[in-house]
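Trying the structure run again after the queue cleared.
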Amino acid sequence: MTNKLVRTILAVSLVLCASTLKGLATDSLAKGFARPPDSARPWVYWFALNGNLTKEGITADLEAMARVGIGGVIFFEVDQGAPKGPADFASLLWRDLIKHACNRERPKYNFDCCSSDVVMTRMSVKNGRIVLPDGMSYRLLVLPEANTMAPQLLAKIDELVEDGATIVGRPPVKSPSLAGYPSCDENIAETVQKLWGATAPAPSGDRAVGKGRVIWGRTAPEVLADVGVKPDFTASLPIRYIHRVVDDMDIYYVANPNPQSAEAVCTFRVAGKTPQVWFPETGRIESVSVFEEIDGCTSIPLKFEPAGSVFIVFKKGAVNLSDNIVSVSRNEQELIKARAAGATDGNNDTVTNTFTMVAWVKPNAEIVLPPEASDGITAVSIERNDVVYPAPEHDTWTEGGASAGFGVGKNGVCVYEHGANYFPALLVHATPISDWTHVAVVYQDGIPSLYLNGQFVRKGLKSKMTVRSGVGVNASHGIKLKAFNGQVAMLKPFNTALPAEEIAKLAQSRPDGSGVVQGPVYDPVSREVSQNGSYEIKTANNEIRKIDVTDLPGPQEIKGPWELKFTPGWGAPEKVTLDNLISWSDHSDNGVKYFSGSAIYRKEFDFAPALKSEIPTHKSIDYLDLGKVAVMAEVKLNGKDLGILWKPPYRVDITDAIQTGANTLEIKVVNLWVNRMIGDELLPEDSERNNDGTPKKWPDWLQEGKRSPTGRFTFTTWRLWKKTDPLQESGLLGPVTI
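Done. Tokens:
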């Protein structure tokens, strides 16, 4: 039997924090007994049998291990003893699956990983902090969970501790090599005795050594939390981050890991500075006006595009209080409040059994509708399509409770709860869902009720648990979650059971435009308003500003017919006319169906401006939204180049290009090579091939720069696609709206 070890242990890691370690609590026995630290949890061997791996199976395994308290895994690929699976060892699919298994959210405390060479040659200590020559500085040095360490490396760590460094981790037992044996192991034992107080120290401890400290038996986050060091970054939804300090600027890179838009309150361990948003795709820089400073941290509500990211840059100098917006309301309903992440409505320890979760959803897949139950784990491994994943209560708060979430498919809605050995569906409602649908899950005294498009449709079973909302707490669970298959907008928690009339009001604010999630009603960064209403803006010095927005038009759809002109020489006709926007792969002409390359859509349309701002300091902005595009588009309006749109939302400001009356729109779209390669597999072979599909030799026609004699348009050394493979969506799918 051949075992392939695919996961290794990092040599040394560094954990960044921003406060000195003082007053560390030493009496943590009771706390550790009630909730064992991560360092005390057992590890297990986890075997994959001959490529039989799926993301769903990986997620189910990791969730099951987390539920029973497993602290980590050592992963093996075993290539014998089972039928061959789809994921060949080290293939692209296999790597993607391993990445899925290891892709845990970044901890709330920032860190860098480094090699032993960095420790040996570049580290020193200054004022209790570990510093590098390039200016980086760190609060803790975290040792790897390994029994071996080179004597020279341990001697360097001893030197750092003597100079004032704090290290976290258990001691090594011996040297990893026989060089200098047995004196190498004797040197290890001598240094361990000095730093940890014994060659086999107690399970946990804390010792002062020289000017520094040695702590073991607890994780770095536990050590930092015990002394009141706030997390470097938190968010009300799963958001990833990196933090760097350059001169007097704090720079955070924050990224949405999911393919849906997200609105999250992000909290940064920075105060007394002016925040800005830097947009990496355009270079645009905007001052942040909506934020709040509390207890040395700054909380900022941010809107992320699907898989989008921004830089948040904190510059020296405080913001004028009259320019610092802390809340925005519309029609007396609060839209935005810059409160700290983790303290949002429906997202804290005190809100239990009675709360509301609402969202607009448009699912693209069906789900499994299990029998309703108030116990068991019937929903743990089924196809759920979670809008809100019910984060495991036992890993988030305390034992004995549950977290609530819900999933939506084209065939219905389920409300789930998740706790220790507990994952049932307490409410199951079968109904067809094909368009944007407003979903409200209302918990009243532990009983979930479901409202669709403002109408009550079903009451579920009463929970036997203490239930909390799962909105905004997903990031606390380390498992990488499967993204919602479809689109989600306006996901929001409430810490009360909303009445039916309030839910009906929320159901009137339908997402506009193409169905690609549009911006919020009020964008806190651009300060754009996208819906009519009476707005009230409150600043940090308690000033109230009121703005009435009326006659804001709904989206105007640009409908067919469209002229579509293809690049010549690649099998498609010169041009076709489309009455409606469809995928090229759905066209009846095989030249269009299997086309790969670029094509230009052309449309003439009339436009009449419907609104002009009556407020001197405000202006109206017109956007062109292309809806769904596969995969990239270049836009020209009335001859003006508006740039390339390469990711959703495919949306561009056309205010300076559009004109009253007649307009000419050109959209150049490029797709992937997949469809053309699938189409070529329907044609006769044009080269000699081995059984595995690789060429026996380079064909003469290719070396002579000629076209394929059988009419193929592509040549590859490895046949990645078969003629039976499904075609990929291609082209401008829309709808196109202004």
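DSSP finds twelve helices and 45 strands in the chain. Worth checking whether this holds up in the mutant runs.
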